[in-house]
Amino acid sequence: FQAEDGIRDTSVTGVQTCALPISTQKGDVNLYNFALERLLPLRDAFSNDVIFLEALGLAFYRSDQVEKAIDAWEQILNIDPNHTQSLLDLGSYFEREGQLGRAEEYLARYVRIKPHDIDGNFRLSLVKGQLLEVDTAIEYANKALELNPRNWEVRRWLATLYRDSGQGEKMQETQKLLDKINQNRLRIEASQ
Description:
Blueprint: E1 7-10, E2 15-18, H1 29-39, H2 50-62, H3 66-79, H4 84-96, H5 100-113, H6 118-130, H7 134-147, H8 152-164, H9 168-191
Antiparallel strand pairs: 1-2
């Protein structure tokens, strides 16, 4: 289960973990400070527990202690180098902060593990585009569209990549599809 606020409830453990790509809102800082007061005394006892570290990373992140959150997520990767949620969280965070080399590292690892993930492919495309690796950015954007052809945001990004790479015909083709998707969306909204 993944709520709109980006908190994922893992029903097996009952522990909530972070899902940064869905939401970057910090939420109620006081609530997360309260959580930290309860979690920090347990840190040594659970220093190798991935689920505990996920909760700790979320509490740090949501209470505006980003460096400590990054430390918790990197500690998770020391325990489990293929922990996809930490890879995606770190890659997404560094992409938003403009630290593209670090973002690329984490997102590339994530996509290698989960090659059929729309969000991972799209985020890696964004990073590659910002690094001016346009052909590679187009590949990842196309992969994301293969997984969800109706994704408006990815298609809009792809049109931008085509424009920037001088592929005007492909840009126009993509723009026509965007216009159709938008017209359908507006029709649906008007009928509701």
